Amino acid sequence: MSSYEKAKSLMKTGPARPTLYSVRIGGLDFSDNEYLDVFCSSVSIPGVSHSVLTTLGQENLGVRNQIPEAILFESPLQIEVIDNSEFRMYTAFKNLFDRTGIGANPGGPLINNQRTQRMNYYDNYTFAVDLFKLALPDPNRPKPPKISSTIRLGGESPSEPYDVVERYHFDTCYVTSISPIGLSSEAFDQYLRFRVALNFETYHTSGDLTSIILPTILL
């Protein structure tokens, strides 16, 4: 059985905290991303896997081998948001969703009640998303040279800077679904939450953080 001292030496900076993260959505403006710093209540880092081909007896008779044929990125990226009384973030994400096609908001002010749908060109509505995994500040954590590796959360009263320990960059994203919103006269002491799913093609991690280009609100 592992001793307490051994466990402590192997985890000098403490366990990773799932509560420390920041999301930057390229399709939203600066103030909306500041809002997400505080009121994005959850986000899931998509997994990766292989699709495989099964071969029989390729090297040894009767032995099955599973050989990777492609790398799969488990799209979509999903986030959950607490909205304010003006439906600020629901409106922002619905506007992103509406960019995917003419007629996505039938009866809206831009198309004069036209209900015909026509999808827009792919490059006209896709954007990038960055997800930063953060950690409590640690002066002993190695910092990559010439790269800002801290981030402040919040707007007018920003937090103390957190260390950026990993960055996930999602390419060519778009809003593919917005969850139903349940309204109830009995939910008088609850926040209104909704989930947004963003499709993407691939994502990459920063590794040693040497490729990070941080937004202007970062240190």
**Rg measurement, Å:** 22 Å
Which outline best applies? globular
Could you tell me the strand content as a percent range?
A: 35-45%
Major sheet summary line: 8 strands, antiparallel
Tally of helical runs:
3
What does this structure look like?
The protein is mostly beta strands and 219 residues long. Helices cover 13% and strands 35% of the residues. Strands 1, 2, 5, 8, 9, 10, 11 and 12 form an 8-stranded antiparallel β-sheet that branches. Strand 3 and strand 4 form a beta hairpin. The chain starts with a helix and ends in a 14-residue tail after the last strand. The relative contact order is 0.20.
Summarize the structure.
By secondary structure, the chain is mainly β. The protein has helices at 4-10, 30-39, 88-98; strands at 21-25, 40-44, 48-56, 64-73, 77-82, 101-102, 118-119, 127-135, 150-151, 162-178, 193-199, 203-205. The protein contains three helices and twelve strands, in the order H-E-H-E-E-E-E-H-E-E-E-E-E-E-E.
Features:
eight-stranded antiparallel β-sheet; single chain; mainly beta; disordered C terminus; 35% strand; 219 residues
Write the SSE topology.
Blueprint (H helix, E strand, L loop, with lengths): L3 H7 L10 E5 L4 H10 E5 L3 E9 L7 E10 L3 E6 L5 H11 L2 E2 L15 E2 L7 E9 L14 E2 L10 E17 L14 E7 L3 E3 L14
Antiparallel strand pairs: 1-8, 2-5, 3-4, 5-11, 6-7, 8-10, 9-10, 10-11, 10-12
